[in-house]
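Q: Got a minute? One more chain.
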Amino acid sequence: MPPVRSLPARPPSSLARRLGFLALSLFALLAATGCSAFSRAVKEGDQFTTNRKWEQAEAAYLRALAVEPGDSEVKVKLRNMRKQWGAEVFQAAQAKHAEGDLASATPLLVRVLELDSENDPARELLGQTLDARVEVALKALKEERLQEARAELDAVLAVNAEHDAARKGVVAVQTAWARRWFSTAQRLEEEGKLGNALLAYVRADQERVGVTAARERAEEVRRKLRDEIAFLVVTGPAEDKASAPDVVQRLSPGRLSALLPQEVPIRVITADAPKDHPGVRLGLAVERVMPVKSVEQGQKLQRYLVTNKAVPSPRRLELEAALLEQERKLEDVERKLSGVLRDYLRKQDELSQAREVAARCRERERTVCAKGLSECIRAFERAKPGDVPNECNPARCNPQCEQEEGALAQRANAAKELERRLEAAQEGAELQRREVQRGRDAYYREPLTVEEPVYADYPYDVELHRLSITTSVTERLIDLAKDAAGASPRTEDYAAVAEDSSNKAYDKVGVLADPVQLRTEAELRVEAGDKAMASIAERVKERFDIYRQGKVEDARRGMVRPSAEDVVETAVRALLLTADEPPQDILQPLAKARGLENPEAIFGR
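A: Always. Here it is, folded:
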């Protein structure tokens, strides 16, 4: 069979030369672009430097260094430009310093040193300026202009954090602020404005710890405020109507105080409360303590092993189902493989036919071209010198089999694609055959039967012992401002229960003897009393929540002007009542209005 004609391949040397020329051209283009950007940036920097446009010159030189980071000439130009820029800024700083505008001269001198770190006159003048600003701050401190003094000192420390005079000045300003706030707090305390006084004492302590006795005074004022807003629970020993002193002891005022939250001002007292003070009066009475003991008969089941029996292996059934599924899948795969194989063989036949057609066409083309060549030779022999006869027209040897060649190439590509599909289908079929063989091996290795244990249930008698203590407690909870005779009593039962079961030993089935182990009656009486006191404490906290919620709402209504003294008084009292979970919409505005760095210090934390 004649081979398929293809285009002549390009010589490798020619292809290599073309690729080398392309790479060289690309490199030259990139180099030209880089050099162009670099030179343009340097030129712009020089022009801006001549025109004393320092910022644009610096940006241009930095662009040039981004292209060529190691160019020493550009680095020198940039350094010289910055020196000139620094000299100009230094002149402006000297003018400001001569005018006495130290605040404006300071940033200019800092900028000079950023541009030219070797400018010793600027460094010396900066030191003089900072010292002068410290003297201004100390003078303002003597004249009690504390905010101005602190602003000057902070500006100096922002430039030089190690300036000794400035740091000592800050300590002096903090001390002065602490004493001023302490004096203000004392005045407010004398005027009876304890909430404002508490914030002033806290601010004095935060300004400088230990300078004044602000922390001790704040604690004293905080105690007075808590006594003023405390929610009082007036109670006494519970009345014992059931002759149960152990239960009555669990209802003592001390137990109630221990169950109430300690962060908020809830006070349990046994004496009379001041008139019109917020709080409740609590009366308790133990009506009865009734123990109930019972025994119930019942049965339980104990499962034990009787014997073993042979049953069909469930694993074998699972393997058989899996094997059948794999075999059905193998049938589908082989069916697809057969279809692909038929398509491949049919396409091979078409390819052979196309190849034969193309070969005959090439033979005809070769014959026509050979005939034309012989006629051209004979015509040249007859033609005059210098003339080209018509018989030598190259068009007579042009390709005439393009359609046949295209059909052959198309069928060849289709045949290759079907060949790849056939190989993939064969590989899939082989993998599926292996899976089927593995399933068969696992199925035949699995035994037909397995041993399964046989269990039986053995019933046996048990006794359920139950001991319960029911305590009936009557409580009378009324507001201090109301009449005690009009309060409705509330009686509830509180139960403590203990259960346990017992049985004998049955050795044949593996049941161990279980004797009765019940809790004692004294323990259950104490538990019932504790349950009663916990329930009563929850109802007292509900009354306290209603009381403090009203105070919080009053404080929230005044948060539109948190710095007002009357608003501060209300807000501080509301915060002390909610010390366990202070509302942030009150705490944060109040702390901001008084300049507190740590708002939690209001609660002594």
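A: DSSP finds 16 helices and six strands in the chain.
Q: Perfect, thanks.
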